[in-house]
Write a structure and sequence with these properties.
There is one protein chain. The chain has about 475 residues and is of the alpha+beta class. The chain folds into three domains: about 170 residues, no CATH class; about 160 residues, no CATH class; about 80 residues, no CATH class. Helix content is about 40%, strand content about 15%. It is built from 15 helices and 13 strands. Strands 1, 3, 7, 8, 9, 10 and 11 form a seven-stranded antiparallel β-sheet that branches. Strands 2-4 form a two-stranded antiparallel ribbon. The radius of gyration is 23 Å and the shape is globular. The mean pLDDT is about 95. Bound molecules: adenosine monophosphate (AMP) and magnesium ion (MG).
Length: about 475
Amino acid sequence: MGHYFPRYTELGETYLIPQQPCRFEQAQLLLTNRNVLSDLGLDVNLPQLREYLAGLSQVDNIQPVAMAYCGHQFGQFNPQLGDGRAHLIASFVAADGHAYDMHLKGSGATVFSRGGDGFCALGPAIREYIMSQAMHSLGIPTTHCLAVLSTNQQVMRRAMEPGAVVCRVARSHIRVGTFQLMAMNKDVAAMQQLVELCIREYFSDITSTGEARVFDFFHQVCQQQCALILKWMQVGFIHGVMNTDNTLINGETIDYGPCAMMESFSFDTVFSSIDRHGRYAFGQQPNIASWNCGRLAESLMLLVDDKDAALERFSKVLSQFADDFNQGYQRMWSKKLGLLTWQESDKALLNELLSLMQQNKLDYTNTFAALTNSLHTSPLPTYTLPEALADWVTKWRKRICEGDLCEAHSLMQSVNPAVIPRNDMVEYFIAEFNQGANSDAFTSWLNALKTPYSYQAYPAQWLATMSNEQAYQTFCGT
Ligand code: AMP
Ligand code: MG
């Protein structure tokens, strides 16, 4: 690992406001993700990391900043968001040659706090730690949680709760909302800088010049968003708060607030307490990602002269999003079903399965895991096919037997996880941490989540559909 440096400095002080993180003298490091440390080649000792996270020392004298952005929250434009409880403390070049940010969440109030306390409760910090690690292991682009610090101070949420600081490590903290703020400010120079920064860091194969560069950039952002949503849907991830300020320009998952895994299958699944109309329901995610890209296009209009021609070009890219998604979606189901080729009649086969799953409230992960396992030469008794699917399975087997069973099995195993961070388990361990425990059971469960596509005889509770799915709610207040 080389040295630390301040990042995004070319954007200037309108977008990066110097802010001091809160000092938590009594804080303790609770969890450190050694995989993140070693994968990124980050050379920091734990006492030092604790000091950085607790606001007790600065990383190489780098001034921490809060980033400014705005965004659409549940469809409504909010002109002033920004890091209201977060500080970007430094960046570094990791072993993969890319720059990564070190970002604190829950590190105290900033100019963007809008009456919030700037803190983070331990429960949501633990959720972020679990979910970001699980998502990375599932092969989904994501920000990482390097560590969770217990502040040893209480924060007021629905009740008093222990406080925490999350240390997020990510290749980007540039959001669609960052562009929206520059568009609002009509700050052409800053937006040009930002486009160049993003191309340099995330889309370096773009070589076009002039306005074509803007459209090419937009196209690549759309492609990344499309790929991300397909991956979420492949594993049943529901982000829960896909606002434009929570949409990273490089297509990584950020902001594990009210997120949860879908268990019983339904496209309408929503867990977030504030998502009353299902705007961010499981099946709505592609539409919303495309809508968010539309907000980026609106912002990028600032950089083009002929607005009418630009509107046409941006719209074309957006309709390409829909086509790309539909193609990717078919490929996704094809893999999940072990179909080496896609025939017209497979659509009916898939739709019948999805209807049966919804009617019978079948678990998304377990159903596909059971189908996968059923093709193994010596299937594990842990994953059993639901009775309600018996007739459908006969049809599917017939279809599968047209191809190579072994190949079909490997294809299915590569996309159908055997173990995911189930909501009951997440809640169970959050409750344990809230009571001051950090059990061996947590460590072994977290270890299993590092190889989610490995089919093993896991403990039944790791695979059980949640007990009270109808009533399950998640909350924003990280
Ligand atoms: P989020 O829903 O986490 O994306 O947050 C939306 C906005 O609210 C961001 O600007 C956050 O920084 C801000 N925010 C959320 N929680 C707090 C808090 N406890 N104190 C201050 N700002 C907050
Ligand atoms: Mg956010």
